[in-house]
Write a structure and sequence with these properties.
The complex is a heterodimer of chains A (363) and B (232). Chain A contains 13 helices and 16 strands. Chain A is α/β, with parallel strands linked by helices. Chain B has a single domain, classed as MetI-like (MetI-like fold), CATH 1.10.3720.10. In chain B, helix 5 packs across helix 6. Chain B is elongated, with a radius of gyration of 21 Å. The chains are: A alpha/beta (363), B mainly alpha (232).
Chain lengths: 363, 232
């Protein structure tokens, strides 16, 4: 567990970077520090491995004040991932990853063997081992950065804007990769970002900081979206937090209808505003048919259980018929659901949640 | 093989050893002084302007005057030639050491510290290797200059192949001067090529970046490439 206990960082010129920060990061969870630039999020992160020392208050790692520990020993036990990866350009990928094991006294051979295993774990095969960082793409470099941080198997991982310098597609891929790794490794992770979407996607808890270095909101992302602490947090979340909240609603219990689903041989023409979903013999979607003809392509569906209500609603909004198509993981149609039915489910979720929140506040 | 060099000047081999010892000695001494000074200038940037100004002022002292001044302390010796040449190299080497160290990306420096490197270890195993191409580029320029400058030592009787030029005047043998020029140029070319070879061997990561396909260009490799070209 990482504990910030009333931490303050004041520079000699009077600037206050962090002001009265108190928060706890439970062991094995991922906490995101998010906020606009100048809110002290990176400064706070660096207090954990003593790259910055607080001017007041304490930072505790498993109950021990980090300032009582030798900085170099402390740092070798904490993984660190930085924007642009910060790989050593003059060392091969495998030697980059072997850095901390080497610092901890492993022989070159041992350290390289460990490094190869960890590289495999982040999805980089042995063919990358002998390359130099400049021979990799930005996304690959960042993967090596993560591997390097994990090489000595530290219980704590600090990540400072780790995915900010890569393009959106790669960023999403790396985020999913991190979630996958975290589900296996269960490290205690503190991640800094200025991207609220990233914070909501990755964080078990999200700490929103405001300029002046104070904590504005700390809690699970769902609570943040449902009940932001104040106007600053609400503004920072942006206008579509309602839609984003839908990411946390599961889609496995959505009421699906199968009556508008017909096979290709069935040449019924629907009346009025009605639509029929035509499927082939393998129950894969062919397209939507209405009174004027068709079929028009059905577009992307959603997989109940895997995708959230947000994906289902998105599919319904984009569909010509106003219905989202539910498919199984092989792409076979399970049923359809309309925008109106989705809206009803969302209202039901909200009602259930507010009961939930009231109960928790009472307890 | 004595290329018509009068025997009283010494054999070709003696002159060659003498010449290279003074030129390379001066480069090495200059490097040993420039590294800590350059480091100081990177750590405490306010020191860079005065240090650079100092190196430039020393560079402006005429070599003959420098030799004459030093004779009082070190006599007629190789040292008397080596010290001024070493001092001159500082004007080239200090800026290159500073540029090289400054080209180490901040993210690299920070991640090294965050992984638990001590300051000294980081400097020796991360900063200096990355700065090496720029430092070596400066060293090549300085060394070629030194090989030519050693000749001036002939005016105080310590010029190695430079003595061919004084002898050419005294004996009225133009051929000796031409021999001197040719030998100096060949020495400079060979030593420069050797240093280039050292750089090639010592920086495998720069060789491999251009040959293989890559989707992204890193800022630092571009910077290094530019520094190397411009310093040539």
């Amino acid at each position: 567990m990482i504990t910030f206990d009333n931490v303050e960082k004041r520079y000699p010129d009077g600037t206050v970077a962090v002001d009265g920060l108190s928060l706890e990061v439970p062991t094995g969870t991922l906490t995101v520090l998010v906020g606009p630039s100048g809110c002290g999020k990176t400064t706070s992160l660096r207090m954990i491995n003593r790259m910055v020392d607080p001017t007041a208050g304490r930072v505790l790692l498993d109950g021990k004040d980090v300032r009582e520990q030798d900085p170099q020993t402390l740092r070798r036990g904490i993984g660190y991932v930085i924007q642009h990866a910060g790989l050593f350009p003059h060392r091969t990928v495998v030697d980059n990853v072997a850095t901390v094991p080497r610092l901890l006294g492993a022989t070159r051979r041992q350290a390289r063997a460990t490094a190869l295993e960890v590289l495999e774990r982040v999805g980089l095969g042995a063919e990358f081992a002998r390359r130099y960082p400049a021979q990799l793409s930005g996304g690959q470099q960042q993967r090596v950065g993560v591997a390097r941080a994990l090489a000595a198997d530290p219980p704590v991982l600090l990540m400072d804007e780790p995915f900010s310098a890569v393009d959106p597609v790669v960023r999403k891929e790396l985020q999913q990769e991190l979630l996958r790794l975290q589900s296996v490794l269960a490290k205690t992770i503190v991640l800094v970002t200025h991207d609220i979407d990233e914070a909501i996607t990755l964080g078990d808890r999200v700490a929103v900081m405001r300029p002046g270095g104070t904590l504005a909101h700390y809690g699970p992302p769902e609570d943040l979206l449902t009940a932001p602490a104040d106007d600053f947090v609400a503004d920072f979340l942006g206008t579509d937090r309602g839609v984003r909240l839908l990411s946390f609603f599961p889609s496995d219990d959505l009421p699906l209808r199968t009556d508008p689903v017909v096979t290709a041989g069935d040449d019924r023409i629907p009346g009025g505003e009605q639509w029929l979903l035509v499927v082939d013999d393998d129950r894969r979607p062919v397209g939507w048919r209405d009174a004027t003809g068709g079929p028009v392509p059905a577009g992307r569906g959603f997989v109940p259980g895997r995708d959230s209500v947000r994906v289902a609603l998105d599919a319904a909004v984009l569909s010509p018929s106003g219905h989202a198509v539910a498919v199984d993981s092989d792409g076979r149609v399970l049923g359809v659901i309309s925008q109106e039915e989705l809206a009803a489910t969302i209202r039901a979720h909200h009602a259930a949640r507010s009961v939930d929140v009231t109960e928790r506040t009472d307890a | 093989m004595n290329l018509g060099i009068p025997s009283y000047l010494g054999s070709f081999t003696e002159l060659l050893v003498d010449h290279l010892a003074m030129a390379l000695g001066a480069s090495l001494l200059g490097l040993v002084v420039a590294l800590p000074l350059g480091l100081l200038c990177v750590r405490r940037p306010q020191w860079y302007p005065p240090v650079l100004a100092g190196a430039s002022v020393l560079y402006s002292i005429p070599s003959l005057a420098f030799f004459v001044l030093l004779i009082a302390f070190t006599g007629i010796s190789r040292t008397t030639v080596v010290i001024p040449l070493a001092v001159y190299t500082l004007a080239v080497l200090i800026p290159n050491v500073v540029d090289g160290l400054r080209a180490v990306p901040e993210s690299v420096r920070q991640s090294a510290t965050a992984m638990g490197y001590s300051e000294t270890r980081r400097l020796l195993t991360v900063d200096l290797p990355i700065a090496l191409p720029t430092v070596l580029a400066g060293l090549r320029v300085a060394t070629v200059a030194n090989i030519s400058m050693v000749s001036v030592g002939a005016l105080i009787g310590m010029g190695a192949f430079g003595s061919l030029f004084t002898a050419a005047v005294q004996l009225d043998r133009l051929g000796l001067a031409i021999t001197g020029i040719v030998v100096t140029v060949v020495m400079a070319l060979v030593v420069d090529a050797a240093l280039l070879g050292v750089q090639w061997l010592a920086t495998p990561w720069l060789r491999r970046t251009r040959t293989q396909g890559r989707t992204r260009t890193q800022g630092r490799t571009r910077t290094q490439g530019r520094t190397r070209r411009s310093a040539r």
